[in-house]
Amino acid sequence: SLLQEIRPMFLFLLFTFLSKCVAQELADNPSPESLTQDTNHSVLPTPWVEDGVTHKDVYKLGVKGQYATIPLRTDGYDHLSTFCYSSVPLSIYMFWSSASMKMDLPSNNYQVYIGPNVTSVSSLAQASESAWFYSQLPWRSKEFKLSPFEDVCIGVQTMEEYTITLQWKYVNYMMVVVTLSGMALFWMAPTLCRNTFFHYTTGISLGLLMSVVLLTYLAQRRFKQSLFSWVGVAYSFSVYLMTRTWFNIKEYMTEQYIHLLVGYVLVAGIISFAVVYRMGPPSNPRTINLIQWAMQAVSLVMVVMSSYHQPASLLLSLTMITWAAIPASLKSGVNTQIRKRFFKPQVKLLSEDEYNTQAHAETKKALEQLKNFCRSPDSKPWKTVTRLRSPGRFAEFIEGSPHLTEAEVMEYSHWDYNTDDEDGHDDDIYTDEEEADEDASDDNMD
Fold this sequence. Notes:
four-stranded antiparallel beta sheet; elongated
């Protein structure tokens, strides 16, 4: 509970620190041109000189909304066009910023080469043409993610007409969600690893996403084969199928394949649930600790990969690790000292009338509770009566009579009156030594 009280304070201090950093960065570094303009105009190719070599058909996209249109080739040959993006200075207020180039091309008849400059892109294209065997990755994407803080060039080789546009996001909300999810997973890992519902959902999710890999693993155990045998090829093929399906999931969500996708989800989900139900949740403390550490490692990777500002994301991950490594007793002590020094509770003092009113109300309430208890069988009234001096007075009290007699009320009133009278005459209060000195001085006067 103490740790839960400390975490909001820590997050508040971290947010305050980052806000001050952002304000300082905004004051010191004005926004670059690519962040303040949103233009929609076409870019023409310009000669590009690198290492003494002039490259043609190079387009520089540096402003949000700029685009380049490549016409259809009439000679029937693929043509390489290069699109370059210039980086912006590293800044903390662009922690969740992202850039990308989106290509508008109806068909998949194209080749893509990505490098830090035009020379590297040209080298990759030449290697692709001269190599006897040049294999591209199984997934094809028409949107190329870029780091806003790095120079990058993208080469597209095709004969068809297409348009490529530079897109910029000040705050990529998907990156924000990944950062916050990673932080939440890191702090909630000790609780989630012991939660049965989370255990079942994780097992079913792994069964859906990695079913082919899990089947390969079961086949390896069944036939007792080494990883360096045909099982290694099976694992590679399984990973190939899994990545190809994931990156081309939009093609499988059409009306032509949607029924197959739904059937696969149902069958794989039911089988995964049965396997997890048969194995049961882990109970060994060491196994639970390993699951917790694995979840926290995944959460740290999520935080680091959720931003193109790698120094800041690494610093955030190291801060989370450092905070988790501090003993709870030390954090509790610091929290107590901070609360005592900066968050002192304001105590309201009662006046004499408020004190008397509250005392009268609480006394009456306590007497009623005592009467109700004495009337209940749990009080064992007969056993209680045998221990009292005046059982009759106790019975009258239970029946509703006052707890004080008239004589006691008169005696208290007489004592209170005399006490007030004495206080009115003797205003000075002396210690024993002062009283003795006063008596001695009176005797000398006599």
